[in-house]
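We modelled the chain as a single entity of 93 amino acids. Its sequence is:
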Amino acid sequence: MDDLQQRATSPPPTTTPFEPLTERDLAYAVAQVVADRRNQLGWSQRELAEEVGMKQPHVSRLESANKLPHLDTLLRIANAMGAKLVVKFEEPE
């Protein structure tokens, strides 16, 4: 798990003050999760795009963290990849 993904999915250490995620941090974390899962499945960006019903450049932009995807897009991607989309809020420690 890379640093950005860990920061997006784990509470910050208790020795430092709470530092909220930015939209850019979240875009990077989402990009990494999508790319990792796609690679686990052995799919190209084009294959993922076909499964989701979008064009390959859209997948490329998502995986480049150029834009935070809409929740409905993430749900379609998760469903296409046989994954469960989980959204949760956690209190900092």
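As a brief sanity check on the tokenised model: Helices lie at 3-9, 23-41, 45-52, 56-63, 71-80. The chain has a mean pLDDT of 86.
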